[in-house]
Specification:
The protein is of the alpha/beta class and about 900 residues long. The chain contains 21 helices and 31 strands. Helix 5 packs across helix 6. The chain is globular.
Length: about 900
Amino acid sequence: MLNQLKEEYFNKFKAQYNLLKSLDAKSPKQELYEKTCTIMDTIFSSGVEKRILENWKLELQKKFGDGGIVYTSSPLVLRIKDPKGWYTPGKGNRFFWQRYQQFLVQKKNWEQNVIDVIDETTDEVLKSLGNPKATDPFDVRGLVLGYVQSGKTANFTGLLNKAFDEGYKIAIVLSGIHNDLRAQTQLRLEDEVIGQSNKGVGSIVKNDKLHFIQSLTTVNEDITGIPLNLSYNLSGSRTLLVVKKNKDVLEHLIKLLTNLIKQAGDSNIPVIIIDDEADQASIDTSDKKKGEDPKTINRLIRETLMLFNQKAYVGYTATPFANLLIGAHNETQAEGQDLYPKDFLVGLPKPDAYCGPDEFFNAAENADDKRPSLIIDIGEDDENLFKSIKKKDEHYKVDSVPPKLKEALLSFLIAVSVRNLRGDENEHNSMLIHTSRFTLVQKSLKEVVKEEFENIVNNVRYDTSSSDVQQIKNLYHNEFVQKTKKWNQATGTKYDTFEWEDVFQVMKKTASKINVMELNGDSEDALEYHKYKEEGLNVIAVGGDKLSRGLTLEGLSISYYYRNTLMYDTLMQMGRWFGYRKLYLDLCRIYTSDDIASNFEHLAIAMHQLREEFDKMKNKKLSPSDYAVRMLAHPKMMLTSNLKMKNVRAAYQNYSGQLHQTRLLSKEKSSFINNMNTTVELINRVYPKIKIQEVEEKKTKTKYHVASDVEVNDVIEFLRNYKTYDGSTKSSSESIIEYIKLLNSEEYNDLKSWKVVIVEGIPTKEVDNQKVSLGPLSLSYTVTRGASADKIPNDRVDVKAIVAAKQKYFDEKKKSGSISKPKLFIYPLNPHANVFKNVQSVGFNDHLVPIAFAVAFPSTDHKISDQVYLKNKTIYEKSELQ
């Protein structure tokens, strides 16, 4: 009884708090919390002891009062100009938003901080749009940047509710290019915006005559089912349409809207178009130099906008590369402006519980990151099998489960069992197998996986002495228990581990509940998670393109992925393992090839740097139209398809305010010898200037051997002679030298005087020590990096990161912010670390150790000329076609 009262109290508290917050968004959290407590006292004081009420309020204080809700970051907002002030958050009629807010609290049990983020970010978008209650025409184009599988749909659902509150009459949602995704979006918006039944928001507050939204599309019927001569009051109604990005559908939409606008006799009907997955199909790939007309989908979206005098286009995407490369001034008389986000860009903050590229890869390249890798190399046997399949008719080659795929199946059994022991026995569990776009290959793979998995399940349940059970036991101890403990140590988390016997007993019960499904256009299998809401769905999903975009795999823990692409945006969207996985992140594994993992890691770094570029734009109060967005390039990969990169050119890598470090070393002996000799030559030149500085770092002192006022030519000579790994995408000596020379030119006269910092290591229990002589300079300890590395590429040495936290700001007054003087850091590395285990034949000793370097550049206000480009592209930059 008391538990039911507590649940009722908490739900009503959340509802009342959000109601007060929506009425007065500017009040401090603590004040809103206290007002809510006062109201709740009057409701519950007669039925619950005061002592119990105080305990409940104390528990809620942690979430709603001071010190409660903490964001990892705030929304990133870039605007072409300050908003005119037509929209005031928390003011006016907010029927639809308040109802949606209460639905998230009461029905979805969402955390308050997640709801607050949706509230704050949708407010920022609305501020950037035109005023639908005014008569002035407006034409606004913007972009909302989220994370893959991070809740973009919930965000634009909140935006739609607020838009209807503020007076927008028509909302058109462009939802993907496939029927199933359009229907999925339609169903969700019927529940969370329209609310005509007792389901969804209709179960919170039913519509009345003043608050009614009519959907002209249904789950089963796209817009093409509506007759063009429909009689309908467009100007007097709130109207929602969910349509897919398809030529016939959009042409029908335009004809229908043209007729309805003619009926209304008024084109001043405010419309908002939400373009979900705005980088897909919406981009104009025509060649302006050849005078080509805009491509079909892009043209039809623009023609739809041209029907209205008051219009707002808001694209949503997690992969904005193509959108940011649209020509900012592309315009045609018939179609109007292109879809470039000229007016605003809003970057959604990263949710606390979200696990994205930063969680799976060291995107910040921090040497203090000790997390074990969750990436497992699929090995030669598996890779050779899937690499050999070039055509759909070669599906016959998949006649058995290769060894690493079998291991992935065993890992999934472990992950499901451990989650059950942790209390998640009724949660969904999913495994992804994505190896080919050919449906025949997927069908063959599903059949052999199903047969193999049934054998494994039978052995688990009935033959405890089988080799399968022994392999699972070894995998649990050596892969899962060990990495969970390391993850706990590295991150401060407290993921539970269990005795093997307990895991195995649960596995016997859960193994038979796991289904193998084939997900593609030819299969009848469907992921109907909603039907298994109470007991949880456990599924191994074998598929292809259907798993590449839009589809969410609930409770995804194990991914077996061998489907490469050379385009940033496509590859990122295929990473379905990104999502809300904090509660079981230590159990997640990605089985893939070394090349694909390397490409994903490069992409993670590129996305990290792109967001840093946006931060710089925000600080300088620039809009997307003011700035040529630069994006890290790759020797083989492209930002997006060639057709979408017509506005792209190779440009200088702009190192202003950045630190770049070597992380990839050649495994050739000659390279190690060359870099050692190059380092000794530099130290011989600067040795008279070297002084020792000791800095307290992590309860021990690190020695830095510092030479000040080093001439730039000495630094250039070092960089010229140092051999970086040929496949390095970031820190090639050539690109750094070009940048230094450019800033050294008469035009800029900068970067003349440097500090050279030789970093000495500290004693470690992880590996044996290695001292080193660098010409006249002797070090008692080398720097240990990659001591616990467990994923060792064959063709190179990848130390991941060499610069420890805040070393970038060594010898600066502040340990964050800007760098005052350029620095060259030299790291003599400990060859006994695990990361060097494949190159021990080099014969490292006191006079030969691996050498890595980092360069820290101060920020510059110079507008760097782009008249000279590097032969090898180092970054991409958006340029306007003349």
